[in-house]
Amino acid sequence: MDLNPAQVLPDASWLMKMQAQALPECLAFRTRHRADVAFIVTMAGRIIQMQSGFAMLESAYAQPNNAANIMMKNLLDLCIGVLAFYIFGYTIAFGETEDVGIADAGFDLAHWFCCFSYATTAATINSGALAGRVAFFPYLALSTMMTGLVYPISARLVWGGGWLQQMGFVDFAGSATVHLVGAVSALVSTMICGPRIGRFPEYRAWRKPLSWIFGEKHNDQYYRVPEDPVEKKVFIPFRRCRHPVQLLFGTFLLLVGFLAFNPASTFSITDGNDLVMAHASATTLLAAAGAGVGGVTTARNGTARLTGMAYSMARTRSSVVRVPELTNAVIGGLVASCACCTVIPLPIAPLVGLIASLLTLSVEELLVYVQVDDAVGAVAAHGPSGAWGTIAVSLFAQKHCGAGNSEVVGIFFGGGTDGWKHLGIQTLGVLILTGISLGFTYVIVMLVDFLFGFRCSRACELIGLDFWEHQFDDGSLQTNNDKATLFGLAQMRADLSRRNRHLDSVVPKKWRSPAKSYMDVTASENSSSSEVFPVPHPHPVNVANEKDVHGDKATIQKLAKKVEDLEHKISLLTVGMLRDRSKTTEDICGTGNRFSRDVSEESPVAPVRTTKSDRM
């Protein structure tokens, strides 16, 4: 029996028939075939499930006292991001093509749902790169702006009727629009935030003029392995990966998620798009396979080499396949497949993945060499691979059954002059999207850092973000006296800072970072401390009775001198408390030790001086 395609495929009258059967209040929402709606919603749900894969992968790299913080950030990426995307992100990205306004998802809710799943993927790349030292709420501010502003602007240019789309730029599932944008944002954020304490034993902080560009606040010693006895006992030495099984499991979750990420961009399985979906799924899997083979690292005589698995096994009988390199290589291949999965032939897909894996591992080594602390390799896995996958469209696109864009023909398949022209368009698109992500992220992070403080305090980082940010105590605070000592010192310094806060209203010197007030530390010192240093009146200067007090330079200089004397008294009091309690004089709040001159030779630890010359 011959099968008539017209009987199984929806024709031009299918929408009319469904509208006739639908309830009156549902007529406006019936913009797609039932099968298409079910397909989009199912795929989008699987893409959102990739957040669990990212969380597993990132927490596998994190120190034990930061693992819950990673999970919390990924969960709130989703919760806060969906609100930002609903209120203004979707309107920015697709306001013209979907005819939507502020806080309006339009009639095509399946499209809105799927587009948000891409937005949250772009935002979560920052989470892994900044793991272990970024403050919680400032990170959420960056994530919200990524989901609601930076990604939607990029999506508008590429998919929402923007000028890149009109020029012929092709990025089927977001190699550049999602992954490259997220990776560039993560790179900028990481360079501003700085590395984790102890990540690079010989780290050198930014020198001028880079210290001005990236807002460097600390000297070299701040980022190196702690020398203070108490901090040494609390400090957890750096390890590349702490949970390899968890890392592999997270990679498997991401692999399955990408098999929904790429096919979902068809937004349909009717009208022949089922063939496009099948082709995208096959090329995605083949690209991951090619990346896995190409991403194996052989280690022999202490030297690591990037090489293919088959070559390494033939080269030597003793080969070591390291887990982090393999997983990052596979992710790099998956990222590269996003842009070209519907236009490249199947035999080319493993080659695309292979080249992506080599780029990923090479850039990862380069970042380590220049001492940029990408905690999970997110920048290397999503950045160069995203750019390469976008360029690969111009090189390997071929007309075939299931092609997502039959007008594009690659240079290696007879594209000729048009192929070279399209290569220029793809390259321009990569540069434009890179610039958008770089510029917006820099402004956002620097503004957040100025207002709230982007990086957490030194005590927070050493004790762990799980306890400091989320009050999760695994019992070590009671059993580990050194950790309790460090935490008690942090409480004391925060309390002294609060008691001196009113002075800033008299002579404002520098914006006080609210990041140091995340925890509601117990106020009040004992009575003896209060007698030594009585708290001044909250309003030592009656501004109303002073004539032009802020304009009188002499008055301001006198007030500044009083503030300096008060700070000196606070320093003396603090040193006395530290000696009484056998605590260190190291400034654990990350603000620089301003009272090191008052420490006598009997002090058990020589303080670390933070001088102007150290930052030059």
Structure notes:
- The chain has 616 residues and is mostly helical.
- The chain folds into 2 domains: 35-196 and 238-451, Ammonium transporter fold, CATH 1.10.3430.10; 475-615, no CATH class.
- 58% of the residues lie in helices and 1% in strands.
- It has 25 helices and 2 strands.
- A two-stranded antiparallel ribbon has the order 1-2.
- Helix 7 (136-158) runs antiparallel to helix 9 and helix 9 (175-193) runs parallel beside helix 19 (416-451).
- The chain is globular, with a radius of gyration of 28 Å.
- The termini are far apart.
- Keywords: Ammonia transport, Membrane, Transmembrane, Transmembrane helix, Transport.
- Belongs to the ammonia transporter channel (TC 1.A.11.2) family.
- The chain crosses the membrane at residues 75-94, 109-129, 136-159, 179-198, 245-264, 276-299, 430-454.
Summarize the structure.
With 616 residues, the protein is mainly alpha-helical.
Notable characteristics:
membrane, transmembrane helix, two-stranded antiparallel sheet, 2 strands, Ammonium transporter fold, disordered N terminus, 616 residues, transmembrane, transport, globular, disordered C terminus, mainly alpha, single chain
